[in-house]
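ok so i was messing around last nite and threw this chain in just to see what happens. nothing serious, just curious
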Amino acid sequence: MSAFTLDELLSLEHAGWKSLCESTGGTFYGELMMPDALFVLSNGWVMTRDEIAASLNDSPAWAAYEITDVRIVEAGSDAAVLVYRATASREEMTEPYTAFMSSVYRRVDGKPRMALYQQTEAAA
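result:
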């Protein structure tokens, strides 16, 4: 039996992006991430759950995003990885930001929790 369905994980990713568009990402990810979870960002930063929770609500909001090329990778009886390409834009940006995202989820006490998020900027 699969730990997660594609629809379940994709729904979580859309909820995360929606929170980033509404400047509530710190609250959203602070609740979704496991206590020892990390964000590994394309700029080389590695951030803890507490650092993400403290920073994202004050980050500039994304105006729009698109998720494509979605894949799920099973990672055991209680875990899965969602891999996708995201293209997002902010009003002040002249070109959209495109990156490949990987989100590792574990089911803890029946609920999905993010264990690791990683992004790699797409080559121009």
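not much to say yet. The domain at 6-121 is CATH 3.10.450.50 (Nuclear Transport Factor 2; Chain: A,).
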